[in-house]
Structures are given as structure tokens and as C-alpha cells.
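Rotation project, supervised by the postdoc (A.L.). Task for the rotation student: set up a whole-complex structure prediction and record inputs and outputs verbatim in this book. Inputs entered:
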Amino acid sequence: MSTEARAFAGVLFALTISFASAVSAGTLDTVRQRGTLACGVNQGLFGFAERNDKGVWSGFDVDFCRAVAAASLGDPDKVSFVPLSAAERFDALREGKIDLLSRNSTWTLEREADLSVLFAGITYHDGQSFMVMRKPDVTSALELDGSKVCVQTGTTSQANLADFFRANSMKYEERPFPTPADALKGLADGQCDVLTADQSALYAMRLELKKPSEAVILPDVISKEPLGPVTRADDPAWFNVVKWVNFALVNAEEVGVTSQNATEASGSTKPDVRRLVGVEGGLGKKLGLDDAWALRAVKSVGNYAEVYERNVGTKSRLGIPRGLNQLWSMGGILYAPPLR
Amino acid sequence: MTLSSKIVWPGAAAAVVLAATLAGCADTRQEGGTLMPGTMASAPPPFPQDKLLGNWGIASYRDEKDRKRTEAQARSQCKLPYTISRGPTDGIMMHVADDPQIHELKLKGAPGGKAYIGFEGPPGDPQDREVISFTENVIVMRFVDPDANSRYGTFVYVRCPA
Amino acid sequence: MFSGRNLSFCAIGAAVLTSVFLAGVFVARPAIAQPMPIGGMGSVLDIGDEPGRISTEETVISDGPFARQMVFFRTTEAPGTVIIHTSERFLYIVQPKNRALRYGIGVGRDGFQWSGLVRISRKAEWPDWTPPAEMIQRQPYLPRFMAGGPGNPMGARALYLGETVYRIHGTNQPETIGSAVSSGCFRLANGDVIDLYARIPLGTKVVVRHGASI
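Outputs recorded:
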């Protein structure tokens, strides 16, 4: 079935069947009827979701929205970005204001069980870490015994901090601050030796320092903060589309397909490359898409490495090392099931 | 036959050049006047130009301590020799720095027994090589241009066995 | 100037090109720079060897993503092993407990020609440089041998990889770190290659990995 025919079928479907609520219609069909993907993003988070003065969005989470739009609508620009606060994000999804939430949200049991939403995988493995000034030349979190630690009050970071030091039989003095900015100032002023927060946040905070190169973010991660896209729990077909777009970007990196070579990849003789770009296997149809879905996603935003490096890695001011977010075969833990 | 290895920095003649320029003295051929930047008056070459002809192994160094082994390396480079042949108009065919084109150059003498290799014109031109020492089988020279000299170092030419 | 500078100084001269493997590398490869399988991560800088550009021992990459730093790195390789990821432009020294000391590198054309496992077979301070024959052909005014020193494109240190012509070396062009460049193997800023040199003994295992190619 062509895209047009499918959209038409979606219209018929919507007209002839009554629904308890709009959100229980197939999200894919809804998106196609509307012609745009409504994607919930952060209101402004460096590297993840930013809007420039011309109103153009960019960032790691933003690119994921574009990839899903490219796969499902054929156009990465057919996205209406919906900036959401942390408090309103899951309601916005449940109420159908957005089709997809791509807003640095941590995957936890409670969220899936209580909120009728499903995390469609992990796009970014974040976790709590430590930033120290370079002078003491500390290279491991296990060398922090006896430190004064700046932390934002009322956060899970505060609890994780206590757990980590206790588990490793180390002592510390807590210096609590009401906001991240105050905590950072505490480190810069020397009120503490160490600042703790999520690693991605620490890299952003480091840029606020007068001399960022004087601060070191330790490689140790002491908590799990797996961030991923979220869909409503009642639409497994759409959930699958979102989930496999993520897997496709990771698999693209693994097999060497990039935004630059995506077109010529169609001529590859390697079966896993051919399945990814859709010249073999007919996989797109099984998702309710066409077979070039993954090819378009990669062409639009690049493979996982390209998305990462452009927004938060070596090509961004953040410069966050891949770390956990490196392929499983290259030193990290990214592992995508096969496209077959 | 060995030349002195006195170093002449391009800057050394700067005062002279400035004075000459102010005086409106522009005739570079004028006997006794050092008139192009860095150049000097001509003198008969201290050795015959033909002594440069033939195949040479070439290597370079920067630090005097490396000179001996560089000479040995130059000797072993005769498998990839640098050939200097006679040019059509009495010159010799060689390259200048950073130019893959071969040119007809001249051996040019300068006061004090100095020698330069370069295009026809006053010796000491930035495109010249300065000959630092010369014997039948080993020549040491460097580019006059300070930038080229710092990049390529001092060259040792060792004559390859016939 | 430098019209013919797209050539490598990875090779240490015609004399060593005796094995079939090495000869194959040089015979099969055209003398002109060609597109490299770099996984689309940025374009190739047309930067060749510029003998004599000066970079001191103190030059390190001190800021930004290519600065030397400890990172999370999960591997089954033993601590002390060197792992080079060419498509990422990083060199790692494996540390205990899922960590590695990471250096930003520039990867030259020759660095993409080969991947595999070797050991450090030789170490040299301010290594000499023997430009390969095809480079002499394009730049006939070059010396056939250049004694080591601050202007030498090999930089402050070299670590030779097994019996191959490949090596980890310094550079007199530190601004090329993090790039694909048209010549050389694996280049670090001089201060960083000096740091690496002090940490890596002879016999260290080196794993070179590329990203996959289609």
C-alpha cells in the first residue's frame, strides 16, 4: 500500500469507527493524517533540545523526533515541537497532545507502571558523576574520601551520593545548595572539592566556569539514568515504529551506514547493510512503513554516532565522551537487536 | 678545498639595505653596493661550477650533533640520488625550495670566499642555497630563506660512486 | 607551495618495503589522496607533511573533547593495552575498572589502510624521517633523510607498530588533531605523544579498529 493509500485508509478508519478518545486511534495514522509529528521536547537543555533565535530546534532529543518523522512521514522537517516542563510531559503524552515524548526522561518501573506509557528503548545512558577542579589530579571517584561535596538539595543525586560513599566506606561533608547554579558556584568558590550531578548536566555546567579546562569530570558513573523516548502504552504498533527507529540508528553506526554514504549503501553487498537500507528483507512494511524508512532516518539525521557527536560529543561544545553510549563492540554498552 | 662556515643572517645587511634604499640606490649590479634585500656583491666562485655535476645522496639535519650520522645517511641514499646536470646556457639543472619544477641555476661567488647556488642575479637571494662547505665529495648547504631553512634543515650532499 | 604534499611519511623508506604485504600496500595505492573510509565523520583535511613547522615538546591538547582525559571504557583487553579507534580519532590506554586514558589523534591516510593487532616494536625520541620515494618524486627538493628535531614532521616521539610501516608519532601540526588528514599514521600533539611514550613500554599490545564500512 502506498503512503497515500495508507493515509486514506487511516482517514476511513477514523471516520467509520468511533473511539473512546482520540489517542486510541493508531498514532501512525493520526500522524499521517495530520502530516506532522507532534514531538514533546525539553523547553531548553543544552545539547538535547535548543531553539535558536529563528525558532529552529536542534539537539540530541530533537534529532530523534526528526528521525521518527523521516521514517514515518518521509520528511524530517514535518515535526511540530512541543516544549514541555518536567511536570507536564507525561500528561501531555497521555492526553494525546503529543505523539512522542523525546525529552531526557529517565526510564523507571514506576513511570511505566503508573503512567500508562512505554519507554521505547534507551537513546542516552546518563548517570550521576563527579566534577573536580583539576588541581588535586583525582582520576577516580574512589579517591574522593574526605571530600566536601556540593550537591543540589532535594534531588536523587543527594541520596545517591550518600549511598555511594557509604557503600565504599568513604566519608564526605555535604554542601547542599538550592539550585544547580549555586552548587556550581560553590565548586568555583572552593566551598567544596567536588560537585555531583548527572554527567550530561556536569558537562553543561562546566562550560559556565571561567576556565572550563580546569575542571575534570570523572569517568565514574554511580547511578543509572537511562534516557529514552516515550509513547503511550496503548499503541504497540507506534511503539514499535519509535523503538525500531532508535535501533536502526544504532545499527547504522554498527554497520557503517552514515548520512554521507546512505545512498550508495543501497549498492552494498552486505546483507545487514541491505536490510537496513531496505533493498532486502521488506522490513519496513512489517512496521507499517515503507522499506526506505531507516534509510531516510539515517540520511536525515545521521547514524547514532553522528547524532551524538554533533549534539553532545566532539562536534559540540559539550564534548561529552561516548562512554556508556558507545557501541557494545567499541567500549560502551549500546546494543541494538538485529534488523531482520 | 673548504669554505669557511660563517653564518650570514639576512638581517645583517638590513641596515645597509635601508640606507641604500633611502639613497635611491637601486642598481643591484653596481660594484661594491649590497642592494637587494639580503643579497651582496658578486665575486668569482670559490670552486668551479662543474664540480657540482653528478649524482648525490642528500640528507638533512638541524642539530650539529646529527651532522656525522646525517652524512652517513646521505651516503646510503645513493639508491635515490639527486642528479645535477649541465644546463643549456652554462648553468646547472637543480630545484629550488617548494617547487617541483627543475630550473637552470648558477653557482655564484660572493666576497669572503662565499658561494651561493640560485637563479642568475646577485648572490644571497632568498631563493638561493648558501654553500656552507665544499669538498670534492661532500657539500653542505642550506636554503637562504629562513622559513625554508627551518623547515628543511641543513643539507649534506655526498657524491655517489660513479 | 607544497603542491605535492599529499603523500605519507608513514613509510620509513624504500629499504624496508621488502615483504609482500608492504609492497602490496604501496603498489596498490595511487600516489594521489583519495576518499578514505572514515565513516562519514567529517571530511579529510588536505594537510600533508610540512617539514619544519615547529611544535615544541610542551604542545598538548589541553581543552575540548580531544584533550587527554580518563573516560569510561569497557573492554576485555588487559590494562595497559593501547586501542586506537580511527573513525573516532581517539587512542585509548586501557586502565583497570572499565576505564581508559584517552588521547585525541589525527589519523592520516595510511592510518585507515590497516587494522589489526600488533606490538610496539621500537620507540624513538625525536625520530628521524625518511620520506617515501613517491613523496620525493613529487617534492624532488626534499632530503632523502631528515634527522629528528622540532621541525621534523614525525614530531617528538615515535612508537613503531610491529613489523609494519605504521607508527604512532608526534606532529608539528597539532591543529590537525581530531581530523582525518591526508598523510601520516596516528599523530598526537608533541606533548601528548611524550606523555604516551612514557606510559607505553616496548612490547605493548596495540589494537587498531576502524568503523565498519558498507
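Student's summary: The longest helix of chain B spans residues 67-76.
Supervisor addendum: The longest strand of chain B covers residues 54-61.
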